[in-house]
Amino acid sequence: MGGNIKYKRVLLKISGESFGDKTGRGINTEQFSRLAKEIKEASDTGIELAIVVGGGNILRGAKLGKSGKSRIRADQIGMIATTINALLLQDILEEFDVKAHVKSAIEVKDITEPFLIQNCLEYFKERNIIIFAGGTGNPFFTTDTAAALRAIEINANVMLKATHVDGVYTDDPLKNATAKLYKKLTYMDVLNNRLGVMDLTAVSLSMENKLPIIVFNMNVRGNIQKAVFGEDIGTYIGE
């Protein structure tokens, strides 16, 4: 792929459903392998890459909380689910000779590392990938907000939000064939129209810190690299 890298330090947000079966549930090792290959190819370009994973393929804390369970405990269980996905992704990346470190916002002693910004910067120098697990470590916050927070903390140039469609649409493209793809949006467009790209806290946090977001289709091979090189894919959200 020609051209210059546009975004040197990248935060990639992958939903838990991306690791599941066709319904987005369970653990599909083939999906982990496919995603790991894409991540390796992007990392091999020389970018500094961090990843935030969700846990929705195993359990969604917010959904469990609505079923009458304690929301705090449900979110804590959801944080553990993200850690499971992070560890599996780390293991498969290492099968491809990619060094990866799992840093968790919740303590999982002897299995994950705590989040320390200085360690992250050292790992970037060594061209290691960082996988953030455990969300923000607090209930009532989604992994989208965790992704925005971690991106800002590591001073990422962009947040890439992986989805199963080509970007942000006027309506659900899987249900409405006439839905139109937005190529560019401002943060206020997303907030005012509640477009559902990610939770409003994540969008607001990104806006306050001028963190651009690219929403793209992870199912299209090479799209991470294309985004990194600044090619016209997905939907760009910024000022």
Query: What structural class do you assign from the helix and strand content?
Result: alpha/beta
Shape, please?
globular
Q: What string gives the helices and strands in order? A: EHEHHEEHEHEEEEHHEHE
CATH domain topology: Carbamate kinase
- Strand fraction equals 15-25%
What does this structure look like?
This protein has 239 residues and is an alpha/beta fold. It has one domain (9-238): Acetylglutamate kinase-like (Carbamate kinase, 3-Layer(aba) Sandwich). Helix content is 37%, strand content 19%. The chain contains eight helices and eleven strands. A nine-stranded mixed β-sheet has the order 4-3-5-2-1-6-10-11-9, with helices on both faces. Strands 7-8 form a two-stranded antiparallel ribbon. α1 links the parallel β1 (9-14) and β2 (48-53). It is globular and about 50 Å long. The protein starts with 8 loop residues before the first strand and ends with a strand. The model has no long low-confidence stretch (mean pLDDT 93).
Summarize the structure.
This protein is an alpha/beta fold and 239 residues long. It has one domain (9-238): Acetylglutamate kinase-like (Carbamate kinase). Helix content is 37%, strand content 19%.
